[in-house]
Amino acid sequence: MDAEAVLDVRDLRVGFGRGVDLVDGVSFSIAPREILGLVGESGSGKSLTSLAIMGLIPAPGRVGGQIGFRGTELLALSEAERRALRGRRIAMIFQDPMSALTPVYRIGWQIAEQIRAHLDLSRRPTETRVLDLLSAMGIADPRRVASAYPHQLSGGLRQRAMIAMALSCDPDLLIADEPTTALDVTVQAQILELILRLRDEFASAVLLITHDLGVVAQIADRVAVMYCGRIAERGPREAMFGAHARVHPYTAGLLGSIPRLHGPRVARLAAIPGSPPNAALRPPGCAFSPRCAHASARCDTPPPIVPLGDAHEIACILPAVAAEPDHV
Amino acid sequence: MMPLDATILSPSRLALRRLRRDPSALAAIAVLALVTLACLAAGLYARHVAHTDPFTSDVAAAITLHGQLTDIMQPNDNPLHLGLTPIGPTWSVQYLLGSDPQGRDVAARLLYGGRNSLLISASASLLCIAMAAVVGILAGYFGGFVDAALSRMMDIMWAIPVYLFAISLSIVTVAQDLHLGPITIASDNLILPIVIIAIVYVPYAARPIRGRVLSLRHAEFVTVARSLGVREARILLRDILPNVAPTLIVLAPLVMALAMLAESALSFLSIGVQAPAASWGTIINDGQGLIYTRPMVAIAPGLAIVVTVLALNVLGDSLRDALDAREGDR
Fold first, then answer.
1. Facing residue for B227 by CB, picked from A92, A105, A130
2. Is pLDDT at B136 greater than 90 in this prediction?
3. A311 by DSSP, 3-state: which?
4. From CA B253, how far away is CA A316, in angstroms rounded?
5. How is residue B239 annotated by DSSP?
6. Is the domain of A220 the same as that of A233?
7. Which residue of chain B comes nearest to A57, CA vs CA?
8. Residue B193 — very low, low, confident or very high, per pLDDT cuts 50/70/90?
9. Is the Cβ–Cβ distance between B100 and B297 less than 8 Å?
10. What is the value of ipTM here, to two decimals?
11. Hey, are the CB atoms on B325 and A143 less than 8 Å from each other?
12. Which of A54, A112, A149 sits opposite B227 (nearest CB)?
């Protein structure tokens, strides 16, 4: 186990009942103060991965593999021990800050409650800490926001309050599950900037889960691409978004489907043909092969992990393809 | 606890404000307050206005009416003047609504009976909501086996007609004093009808509560609370209970209306409040034999029930509107 890493996930498997593993042998690690972008389509297993790390997979779920957190094996801990970690050392923020906050309490109360649950602070210091946290989130009027109910705030303010709550106990790891998806674009940029800044101020590592490559390209240090419950590619951001980057065919397809501001205008955006397979119907070899333009008979066996240097690896038999596809 | 911004109202303050602006809610509250106050003043009315004891029968009594001494029990109108009929409504201070077959002042008994009817229905409603909240929250939140067991139990209870169920329970308990170990509950103790009525309406109230909790259980803020390391018991108290509170508050007057009807029905069948104590149901029972000659004996408590139940239902509806936290201030 990597003792240096904040989080070291090895061969994580998540499934429900007697069904197939929806997360099928996922491995990655996050260094202190690092932002890891976990990218994938809906249903690729990225949210299940985050819930497994939190220990919140509902019954009848089963979780296998190893999840090392600062040298402790999380899957070996009792429920009480995991609960003590949740919110204290691993915190999570969610996609929709409206439904993530309890509608019947004031924002300040909810943050204070969270602080009291984990830290032994009396009333006054708690109150001060709530206001400090809200100011640290770039909220100009923390007193007003603390007195407000969730429905009285804008989406951006709610997400800031949610992040304040998650960071209230200085966690080592912050899991952000689609933190900007429910927000409009300008607010999105502000929240991403906030996460970048807070990473330095609070010294937390961040697992950023998103389907938006643009978000990842902006703030992630390293990127892991998930497809159908498996990691297709992982590596440093520069290695994947650079001008001459060579990536997994799936990543290339994702990058090709993003409209670009610069360069020649394309008549039609390239789309990946087909749709992600149901995990139960996953082909025996490479899960992406049915949709891959480069697929051959060799793709019917599980793909090897091919290192491309600089901690950049892809799960593909090809020596990677160009990140910028030729638009025809 | 937090420094408050005075312009931001809490949900309960907001609901109160909406209620104050709702004319039908105000009317319902006024009617209920009036009925309650009148019933609380029953003793004053009996002693100082009607000068009567509404709990002892006195068929030989006579009152002065329009300057004449008049018997309470009057000979019948038939040609032979056989039998006696109690005096009808005098519309004066004594025997305002007439007398019942035992020579007791119906108006005074109506007020005393209202006390019992209101007390029983209000207590039964609170007890019923409390039990239903426990059942509904446990079933809705824990789901699975707990839900299946509790819900099937509710189904079975609900499958038995409410009055039949209440009557069976009453007959077991009211026929003789109930002995629970060292505790003996007299058969005329009001606790009995309260508990019986509360039990039979638990399924009615538990279902909507369970439904609400079922949707709350999957609300994201519950997952968030878990992700923040909050204990299950604390989530139930902190996140689930306050969010079902509006459902409980709306159900309370509706269940009270049902409880009042049930109480009247049971008392009418002589298995609720026991003579000589009165409730609106027992007075209707007293008036049963006089329905052709002195209908006011049965009509008066009937009207009281109708008015109170109607007001309770209107109040329940208004509360439902006022407590909808998602809607803005109107």
1. A92
2. yes
3. coil
4. 67
5. I
6. yes
7. B223
8. confident
9. yes
10. 0.75
11. no
12. A54
Q: Tell me the per-residue pLDDT of A96-122, one tens digit each, with 9 for 90 and over.
A: 877 888 888 899 999 998 888 888 888
Identity of the residue in A56, A99, A114 whose CB atom sits nearest the CB atom of B219: A99
Instruction: Based on the fold, state whether residues A165 and A183 are members of the same structural domain.
Output: no
**What CA–CA distances, in Å, run from A127 to A115, A136, A173, A217, B57?**
10, 14, 24, 37, 68
Q: Which CATH number fits domain B109-279+307-327: 1.10.3720.10, 2.60.120.10, 3.40.190.170, 3.40.605.10?
A: 1.10.3720.10
Chain A residue set in contact with B, beta carbons under 8 Å: 54, 56, 59, 83-88, 91-92, 94, 96, 99-106, 108-109, 112-114, 117-118, 123, 127, 130, 143-144, 146-149, 151-152, 162, 165-166
Are A247 and A159 found together in one domain? no
Neighbours of B213 (CB within 10 A): 25
Cβ within 8 Å, pair A103-B221: yes
Count of domains for chain A: 2
| pTM (whole model) above 0.95 | no
Crossing angle of helices B202-217 and B144-159, rounded to 10°: 150
Residues sharing a CB contact under 8 Å with residue A19, sequence separation 6 or more, in sequence order: A279, A280
Measured in angstroms, the CA of A8 and the nearest CA of chain B are apart by: 19
Q: Do A100 and B225 touch (CB under 8 A)?
A: no
